[in-house]
Amino acid sequence: MKLFYAPGTCARACWIALEWAGLDYDVIKVDQHSEEYLRINPLGMVPALQLDDGKILTQVGAIMNYILALAPDKDLGADEGILEAYDFNEIMAFLSGDFHPAFWPVFMPARYTVTHTASALQAVQEAAYLRIDKVMSHLDAKIGESDHVYKDKKTVADAYAYIMMLWSVKTPKPYKDYPNIARFAAAFEKDPVVQTVLKTSK
Question: Would you state the torsion angle of the CA atoms of residues 179, 180, 186, 189, taken in this order, to the nearest 10 degrees?
Fold first, then answer.
């Protein structure tokens, strides 16, 4: 398999998950806007995971589910049971549907206004800070007194949440200002896989 990533993106969460799962893969750094990469994913988004038969998988949540299916013995997903699966899927849906999009206006404010003056773009970003604080506070509450996002268990949701919450350093309230998130991050960063991915994914 080949994982296509760009520095600073959520693709690094899939990289961590692949390593935790003990799967055989290569990582390829790409320019998301290059013609070459757009042939792989026409949306110009990362990650993309190319299987050995050439099939391309996209979207973090879907790729994470694929990784979980390949390595069930690693127990990196939901516990058994309908409600346990729901709890895990709810968190993953929150991360992809609420948490991730909250940051888009910070990095791409021009997408959210037809007026591209400096003041208009700044207004978009400042509005985004309010939404980011809301989703960060929600994540902080989800973590609670544990060191994980789902229950008190290491799962791929930890990797997804961690990589994205690092983006909060671009806002007036970085992740270390949220007590439970700060504790979670400190514990997570001790993982040797995480340290390696963060160092080599620049």
Answer: -140
- pTM above threshold 0.85: yes
In the predicted model, residues of the chain with pLDDT beneath 70 are none
Which value, to the nearest 10 degrees, does the dihedral of the CA atoms of residues 73, 79, 81, 86 take? -120
Closest CA to 47 of 159, 150, 170, 190: 159
- How far the first Cα of the chain sits from its last, in Å, is 21
Distance CA 42, CA 32 (A): 10
Is 165 in contact with 194 (CB distance < 8 Å)? no
pLDDT tens-digit map of 155-167: 999 999 999 999 9
Strand partners, 48: 4, 58
For residue range 9-42, list pLDDT tens digits in order. Answer: 999 999 999 999 999 999 999 999 999 999 999 9
Chain centroid to Cα 179, Å, comes to: 20
SS3 for 7-47, per residue?
CCCCHHHHHHHHHHHCCCCEEEECCCCCHHHHHHCCCCCCC
Tokens representing residue 13 in the block: 């969460």
